[in-house]
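Bench log, entry 3. Co-assembly request; chain sequences pasted below exactly as received.
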Amino acid sequence: MSTSIGSGMLLPAPDTRKLLIKWIVALLVPVAVFTFWSGESIINAVISPATASGGVPTDPVSLIQAAIFTTAFYVAVLLLAGYLVAADSGRRGMVELWIDVLIFALAPLVLVILFGLIIGLALCAVVWPAYLYGRSLVRKARHYTPPPPLESLKVMDAEQRSALMSRATAGGFWFGVAFAVVSLIVDLVYFFTGSLPSILLIWAIIRTLILPVAGYFLGRLAGVIALRRALPQRENGNGGNGIGGGRNRLSRRQQLATLSTTRASEEAKDLVPNDLPLRSSGAQRFYLILLVAFVLFYPVLDPFLFGSGTDGRLAGYGDAGYYVILALGLNIVVGFAGLLDLGYVAFFAIGSYAWGMVGSTQFGLITGVLVNPQIWPWFFWPMLLGAALIAAFWGVLLGAPTLRLRGDYLAIVTLGFGEIVPVVFRELDKYTNGVNGIVGVYSPALPGADWTTSTPYYYLILALIVLVIFANIRLRDSRLGRAWVAIREDEIAAASSGVNLVSTKLFAFAAGAFFAGIAGAYHAAKLGGVSPDNFSFGDSVIYLAMVVIGGIGSIPGVIVGALAVYAINQFILARLDSLASDPSNLLYTIHNGVAQVFPGFTFGNIRNLIFGIILVVIMIFRPEGLIPSARRRRELHVSTEEAPEVGALDVVPGAPGFETEVHVE
Amino acid sequence: MTLILQELVVGITTGAIYALIALGYTMVYGIIELINFAHGDIFMIGTFVSIAIFGLFGITSTSQPTGLTLASILIVTCLVSMLVCAVLGVVIERVAYRPLRNSPRLAPLISAIGVSLILEDVGKLWKGITFVTFPQIFPQITFSLGPITISGVNLLVILVALVLMVALQWLVTSTRIGRAMRAVAQDREAAALMGVNVDRIIAITFFIGAALAGAAGFIYGLQYGSTIFYIGFQLGLIAFTAAVLGGIGNLVGAMLGGVLIGIIGALASLIPDSILPHGGDAWQEAIIFAILILILVFRPSGLLGQQVPEKV
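Structure output for the full assembly:
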């Protein structure tokens, strides 16, 4: 690979030049926006803490965290630049890509800057489908179909591989140069207008030197990563055409292509060169670095990003977190196993009461054991598992009578269970303190963590979410997960194929309830209390709406759905009234206008009205959810593709070319 | 024993109202397999419409019409309430359900929940967040039947419910529209091939179901004298339970289920504090659902539902 150094990189070939311009512009715009928004202030605070202002943390631990995040961020971006330049097949135009980047990277950034994290992301959930819908309309109107992804897939020989390598290096290097130059110019302007201290000027000069060098090496690294995804030439040299043995990946692809275009194109998405490198799994690896760094250091970054009020925001995210867990748990029952559960809140209630009754003085009242507030909070950790197991046990108990039921009879039994459980908790006041609920539930205990602030809760829920997502993915891909999907699709066929209906269904209920139990214990600890009013049928319905809106059966979809529903309810609708009290706001005039027709009108009164309209509109325009699962997307895809094919069988069966004309799914 | 008989009367009256609402659930479910969560809220709108019509007639708690005036006012109010709800039901079907007819199964369910939330807030905007009282229009007469007493309102409620149920039964079993409805419920595509206008029949189903909810709203007001915006959600849940108990999709089953649940609820309130803390009233819902679960364990398709053999 040493051939990549030299004139080829500094003065790239014309086609590489075009790719460079395409990707450097695409990446530079969002990165620059982020840098000017707060990336710069983070770096400045790290370089010279004295210049930091506006309540940002200046203690060493926070600054180290901020520095790690910043490094990870810019490293990932440079890697991305190299990778994308190398992985792009160059068949898609620049403008198309720039519009995509504008919508998918810049729009969320700007929305988040303007409206805060959760609302910004929630608005993205509106903007993105709207854009995709509009794009499909435009494409239909212009009779444009994107080129099929398979045609450009070639086996790479040594020459092409080294060309790809030098493209990657050039990508990293030139992106580094462009970014360094732009930042330097801006910093010089600041310096000469006098608002930049000299120490930061020194940093700006160092940075200008570092960035291209780092870009060069990171670009090479990205090239190596990209090459791993390129189709390799056979090593024993068979003319380089990839023929010989069904083991070759290309011929496997050709076989796949004759069987199923959908699967072949899905596999082709990961290969280099690629028509849509932004969506390839190679690029997704870099997004993951960005995401993990961001989420991990978020409590430190928050004041840089949004100013004061970090604790309140973190508390909000802590609440959003248990909705994510609940939605993921419900997704197992409804999404994977296809069992409609309208009483999921019952398991959440059981989990909440499990820690509520054990982790408070209530435990002493029930059992007579002396509760020591010093050591009792430690029991949170075993009880987290305990609450989950108790909930899972009740999940099995509920599952047992429903085994013979089908469809909506099952739904009504779960609904009934969801109604019974809160009544039991409310009326058995000897144990649960009845309608008043339990107060003074202990926070968890952990050395070094201050549970009066929201930061430990943020990390706790983060860890729990990661665990739950991991468990969900493993369950989905396990033998059990496939059995769930099988009974969802066809119970009788599944049973005939040897799936044990009883244990499979019970496991689904137990797994769903298990996660609700975890969320419940966390909820009780975070709130510091449990009240029977928090667990109504309306809550079950909200959880179900999260799953369906996000995309039933799809793990990322369900997470997005949970965040979107939570954001709409708690961040947007709950704030309308305070926004309307500001005379400069548009809502103020709307409010006054409506209040003349309906005296005493507040936006709080029509929260559900707005939420209901949003639900109906989302369902009408995107009945499969915001991010449908791959399986469902494929199903929908097939049904749209099959219809013309039946009529368009214009090649006689048996004639040459018939095989390619008819795709067997 | 007297107490039990007396509660039985209460139970049958309440059950008649449940049954009327349950019919709407069961008809819609039978024809498009959708749990129409908005149905209970249509019933709530029905109670509000009835109050509004009484207001238009200038009836307050002090001015008490009698005789023929009273009868005509009652009939007009009931009919208008039914009509308003029926139109509402058709509009909801057109806007929120028809675009989703060929979507994944849960999409219309979420849409229905959305409509339910919308209607609740419409009720809230219209009549506020407190209980609204009905004018006490019906004279306070009681009949003694041995040891138990039956009020005139009770009789009227049961009468109205009975008349509507018989009319519905006749409509479904003996008319052309009813036959078309049953055909669509059995096999939508085959019905369409036989020349049934499926969209129209579904709209008619919603029209009838919602009209029954409107009537239920009217008699609910007479019986209980007050209503509030979330009443539809509560009663709707129980009525849906009644529909499932009887075997969802089955009209007679819905009536039976409604009356049965009314009776169970009324009898449950007799349970003394010594057995259940705070007495049976507090546990009413839990008891209803527990019995429902028990019944479904032994009869998985409800009391009168058919055990349909699975298609292979």
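Residues 2-298 of chain B form a domain with the ABC transporter involved in vitamin B12 uptake, BtuC fold (CATH 1.10.3470). Chain B touches chain A through 53 residues (CB under 8 Å).
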